[in-house]
Design goal:
Layout (H helix, E strand, L loop, with lengths): L3 H6 L5 H20 L5 H4 L2 H15 L7 E5 L7 H7 L4 E6 L2 H14 L4 E5 L11 E5 L4 H7 L15 E7 L13 E4 L12 E7 L5
Parallel strand pairs: 1-2, 1-4, 2-3, 4-5
Antiparallel strand pairs: 5-7, 6-7
Helix pairs in contact: 2-6, 4-5
């Protein structure tokens, strides 16, 4: 599956953005030959399982110019890099505790010529600064994730939706979210067609988690 699936769902991309999305496959395939950034079966479906999945967040929340987004446990750069291509005027910080993954992320950033992304090797708990939204893709159960990211979300919102967490998850989240009364769940099957998205969701958790 090629990058055409991205253009189908995001038809207003500039030529630069199209070129950047097109370049992702080669960049990740090159790295995957050296280290297994993306699973072998997934590399053939990179645009569906990683790029479009990451962009599911953009169907729920658009990011303003100048806002700051933190991607926790970015792995090979998802969801941060696809979102950074889509929002070139938004600042993205991608953090991961595994050094070789951040090396890949930095190489992809450089290869795409992205100037709005910073890659950091480290733990989110040790990171300075606050952000409008924190994004991630199922790196931990929500209680653990909120503990890791405590104090990292700005109080003042520049978007209509209150600052918070936008988390890509799958399956039944009833148990995991039972203590988070303010959580909202969005089904990605409402936005994207296909079997892959049938169980995929974006969980939005506003800055005040309880109440």
């Amino acid at each position: 599956m090629d990058s055409g699936i991205i253009f189908q769902y995001f038809p207003d991309l500039s030529e630069v953005q199209k070129q950047q999305f097109n370049a992702l496959e080669t960049l990740y395939q090159d790295w995957n030959r050296k280290i297994n950034v993306v699973s072998r079966k997934d590399i053939d479906e990179l645009y569906l399982r990683h790029v479009l999945h990451s962009l599911g967040i953009a169907k729920i929340q658009q990011f303003n110019e100048g806002s700051e987004i933190l991607d926790v446990g970015t792995g090979g750069g998802f969801p941060g890099i696809p979102l950074a291509i889509l929002y070139p005027e938004t600042h993205f910080t991608l953090v991961d505790a595994i050094g070789k993954k951040i090396k890949v992320v930095q190489d992809v950033i450089d290869g795409l010529g992205l100037t709005n992304v910073k890659a950091i090797h480290g733990r989110v708990e040790d990171l300075d600064g606050q952000f409008d939204f924190i994004v991630s893709r199922a790196v931990a159960a929500m209680p653990t994730f909120t503990r890791w990211t405590k104090g990292k979300i700005k109080k003042e919102s520049s978007h209509e939706r209150r600052n918070g967490i936008l988390y890509l998850k799958g399956g039944d989240l009833t148990e995991e979210l039972k203590d988070f009364s303010t959580a909202q769940i969005f089904d990605l099957s409402d936005y994207f067609f296909g079997e892959f998205f049938e169980t995929k969701k974006v969980v939005y958790l506003p800055r005040k988690f309880k109440g």
